[in-house]
Amino acid sequence: MSTDWILRKSTIGSNNCKQSQLSNAENHPLLRTQSFQTEETRLSDVKTKSANSSQANSGIIQVTTQWDGLDPLSLAALSSNSEPTITSAKLVDDDGILSIQKRTNFLDDDFTIWTIHRNKILNKFNTTEKLSIKSSFLLDKSGNQLKFNSNIIQQKVKERLDQLQDDFEETNMQEMSNLSQPEYVKRIEELNYALKDSWELDQKVKALKIAIQCSKQLSSTTVIHFYPSKFVLITDILDCFGNLVYNRLLNKSNERHEDSNISVQETCRNWFYKISSIRELLPRFYIEASILKIYSFLIDEQDRNNEFEKIFARLTRMIRGIGDPLVAIYCRLYLCRVAIDLYPKSKKIFFQNVQDIFESTNQLVSPIVQQTLAQQKVDFIVYYSLFVPALEWILNCLFYKSDNLVLDQVFLTFQKLYTTPIATANNNGSLALILNSLIIGYPSTFIIDHLPKFIEFIKHVGNGGQLLLAYPKYILVKNIADSLNSLENLFEFNVENKSLILEEIWTIIHGLSLTEEYVCCLEAWAEIIAKHYTVSDINYLLGDLVTFLLPKREFETYGPNLLTILSKIIQHGSCRFHFTKFFSLNNLMPYLDLFHKESLKIDACKCIVESFVKSFEQSTSTNRSVEDKIQSAETTSDPVILNLITYLCKIMHDSITALTLDDEKRQISYLISGFIRRINFNRDFEAQLNFYVESRSNFSNLDHVLGFLVYQVNLLAMETHQIVKGHHTKKTIAFVNACIAFSFITIPSIDDIIMRLQLYLSSSHVALVNVCLPQTDAFLKSAITLLRQLPPQSEGPDGKLYSNDEFLHSYVSQLLSTLIVVPDNPDQGFLYLFKGLYNVLKEYQFDQSSNSKFQIWVNLIRFLVTNTLDSYPYHVAKVDSNDTLYAQDPEFLKEIQTYCDIIFQELLDNFKRNQNEDFKRQCNNAIEIINLIINVGNGNSMSHVINQLWNWIAKNNQPKYKTKELDRKLKTTIELIKKTFPTNGTST
Q1: Best CA proximity match to 117, nearest among 204, 227, 228, 26
Q2: Neighbour-count burial of 768, counting CB atoms closer than 10 A to its CB (0-12 exposed, 13-18 middle, 19+ buried)
Q3: Structural domain contains residue 376
Q4: CA 526 to chain centre
Q5: Computed from CA positions of residues 552, 553, 556, 560, in that sequence, does the dihedral angle turn out positive or negative?
Q6: What is the rounded average pLDDT of the residues 441-448?
């Protein structure tokens, strides 16, 4: 069935028909001069229209409510057969408001768009109660429209009434009740789909009816705490309807024919004619506001702002006729949503709505409202919270880019209202609600300039626990702190009132009887006190919390809040004051005792210790004078701070169990290590060593901490060596031996085998430099013995297993470099440490895909060859190495030759076994062996080996294995061979 309109030819204006009588329209929304229509005038107009319609009955098409799928609003579009169809594309802008293309850059990115505000409302205002919805366009469970039977008499009566009633009255409205919130949202979405489908089917009046029925839902405040979310859901449909109307007219205006503009304007007027026939105030307001931007097709661009201002003023006055204050304020919210898009610069529109809200505050506590809340068992605190989203948005629109004149005018208006008799009565909670919204909406600079006055307002607000209708005072105290926290230079130009303001705030907070309110206020003000007040004020804050919470035994309930307060104080206070003052607060430890839950107490300890560590890092990273550094070093040995941080670190350490995650262990280890690094007794090395010994007993379960202690003790021994410049006395050598003994005892208690190996080697260096040769041997023996326990694979940070071959190669290289200068023990024979290392390496299971074993064996040969030199490449002061001890002893050289032969043969055997596996790697190994023979061996006697290896390289050096690095090595090797064998170099 076609949905195109088929028009009958009208006989109006023909010769055989009288001209229809027309009456002048004196009251209509489209007229420039507007006046409110009285009931008598409306009744007379209805009678006149009825008489005129009866007189011209023979010449005019009679309009009924039986549309039969045809839409009379489309008659104006008959002249255009090519009107594009609006599909179900995205009809609502991203910001959620009815939007024309931006005509101004007034709204910048810092303006809070409606989408953010909308989502906050939907997330906050939910319900578990049953909801209901009234409509004649709902679908049943099978997806069909609900149909309701009526008898024949009722149907005839309906048909007659339809001739008298306006076109949009529905007599078959049905209510669906007992809906959960998801079911209710689903039904709202069905109405939205029905509206779009009706529009696509060219059933414009049906779409309008759906929009009207949706707007009527907003007149009901049953389940009152869900009303803000219901407003959002319903206005989404109205937004969609408004965009459909606007886009249709916009497409018509873009058509290129003579009558397009006239047709568009006529269609606009038709829409407003229909809206003016809606008898109920609320749907009439919402529908007109939703399509308000189509006025732009009726007015000139130069008159646009003035005309819109008049229209918004009229709609603002319409809202005064709505009795329910909750319904009225959300009407104002919707009007301001439209206004901020169409005419954002006009502060007069928003100010008029704010002024109307101020003047209607007494309605919030009217007997009818109290009766409604009593029936729904909703208290006034919840009821007041329903107004907050609307107030925030309206004030946001008013205050955005407003000058001081507007801000002051709003403030003076509220101040004048606050002095009225209602402000002194028990129902001043409604004014406190307005005050809270002003605190949130005003810029922080305005708040600080008028802070004494705001505090005076707050002092006159009744406590929620005393008066039934009072607004919670603690919310005002909290929000004013949140506003001030955004200012970095708070009190910079108003230092005199700084202490007085804090005293007033303390007076207000102490007047709160509920613990929840008290803690909430201090949680907000803690940041201000830490940022802008003294250490004494911070200490008083902590002590006041302890005094308030300890007798009531309620501190366990508010543990997270107490942790937040401590975090703010630590974060903002520790950076302002020297840590000796800050961490010496006498109320800090009693405050920590309020944390009885272990996890919270550990977090509190982490917070304090982390701040302590960061203060050290900041002090060491800045360019300070030597005197400042010395003073900082002296303060780190303060016994009060030392005992406090040690106590906190011990709490963190003792919390570690077998189930503790590795990340948690690493974090605690980092904090404890940072604390240990922070303690410095200057030249009192014995006290420093005693501190390390005590720390070892306190933190014995953390490998990283134990390893760091060994590192610090080794550093202490080297500082002693540096002070005496290598010339030890009995006292200093005894102290160094004590340090070495500390390391030797501590290292075996570490579970991480790689860390132990590294610490053994570094400790042996310390012992060797201080000429403690027996201790050096002990460390090296332990390291070589421990290599037997090194597993072929270790778990990495990502949980995967990785081969230890590369670590072993690097570690053995460092170990061999150390053994060069370590003299042999005469009781143990030649190279006894090297022999032990060699035996351990032979037993190690190398990865077959790794080349580490080959590289290690090459290093073993180089070590042996180095030991044959008359003088070693480097020495340690006051230590006689093997070059001095043996002085080219033949037995010593013979022992070296024996091991060279064995290791070199093993090197060749390893090459032969793997020569067919990885040709690229084996080519590099062959070049390495050739260079080894030429550089440190007897090239003439081993020329046959060089010749065999070179032939193997030439045979297997295929293009696919060639690389730039390999070519470079080959060229270097050829030059080396030519220099070593000048007669045979060419043939080779």
Answers
A1: 228
A2: buried
A3: no
A4: 22
A5: positive
A6: 91
The H or E element spanning position 132 is strand 131-135
CA gap 140, 683 in Å, rounded: 88
Average the pLDDT over 32-57 and give the result: 39
Q: Is residue 266 part of a domain?
A: yes
Reading the block at residue 29, the tokens are 């929304």
Identity (one letter) of the amino acid at 957? Answer: N
DSSP string spanning 175-189?
EEEEE-HHHHHHHHH
| Average predicted confidence (pLDDT) for the chain | 81
Match 């550094």 to its residue by tokens.
Answer: 629
| Number of neighbouring beta carbons within 10 Å of residue 14 | 10
pLDDT at residue number 461: 80
- Give yes or no for a contact between 329 and 393, defined as CB atoms under 8 angstroms apart: no
Contacts for 91 with CB less than 8 Å, ≥ 6 apart: 196, 239, 240, 243, 244, 247
Amino acid identity for residue 600 in this structure: L
Any residues with CB less than 8 A from the CB of 616 and at least 6 apart, and which? 636, 674, 677, 678
User: Which residue has 């102490």 as its token pair?
Assistant: 510
CA pair distance 283, 269, nearest whole angstrom: 18
H/E stretch holding 47 reads helix 39-55
Contacting residues for 304 by C-beta, under 8 A, at least 6 apart: 296
Query: Rounded distance, CA 244 to CA 321, Å?
Result: 29
Cα–Cα dist 436/430, whole Å: 10
Measured between alpha carbons, how far is 966 from 846 in angstroms, rounded to an integer?
25
Give the DSSP per-residue string, 754-798.
HHHHHHHHHHHHHHHHTT-HHHHHHHHHHHHHHHTT--SEEE-TT
- Residue 725 to residue 721: CA distance in whole angstroms: 6
Last residue of a domain, one of 282, 297, 312: 297
Strands 174-179 and 793-795: unpaired
pLDDT at residue 160 tops 70: no
> Is 350 within a domain?
no
> pLDDT band at residue 52, thresholds of 50, 70 and 90?
very low
* Residues facing 793 on adjacent strands: 803
Q: Which of 129, 100, 115 is CA-nearest to residue 247?
A: 100
pLDDT tens, residue by residue, 475-524: 999 999 999 988 877 766 555 678 888 999 999 999 888 899 999 999 99
Residues 6+ apart with CB under 8 A from 574: 582, 611, 612, 614, 615
Cβ atoms of 479 and 518 closer than 8 Å: no
623 token code pair: 């360019």
pTM score above 0.90: no
731 CB-contact burial (10 Å; exposed 0-12 / middle 13-18 / buried 19+): exposed
List b or e across 195-213, with b for residues whose CB sees 16 or more CB atoms inside 10 angstroms. bbebbeebbbbbbbbbbbb
* Cα 319 from Cα 321, distance rounded (Å): 5
Answer positive or negative: Cα dihedral of 628, 629, 630, 634.
positive
In a domain, 869, yes or no: no
Please list, in sequence order, all residues whose beta carbon lies within 8 angstroms of the beta carbon of residue 547, skipping any fewer than 6 positions away: none
How many whole angstroms separate alpha carbon 171 and alpha carbon 148? 11
What is the mean predicted confidence (pLDDT) over 403-413?
92
Q: Which DSSP letter does residue 90 get?
A: -
Integer Cα distance of 187 and 183 in angstroms: 6
State the DSSP code for 217: G
Give how many domains the chain has, as a whole number.
2
Tell me which residue range forms the domain holding 285: 110-149+175-297
What number of residues does the chain have?
Answer: 988
Question: Pick from 247, 264, 297: which residue ends a domain?
Answer: 297
Residue 795 has φ and ψ, to the nearest 5°, of: -80, 130
User: How far apart are alpha carbons 716 and 722 in whole angstroms?
Assistant: 10
Cα separation, 836 vs 839, whole angstroms: 5
**Please, which residues bridge with residue 131 across strands?**
179
Q: CA separation (Å) from 925 to 606, 804, 852?
A: 53, 21, 11
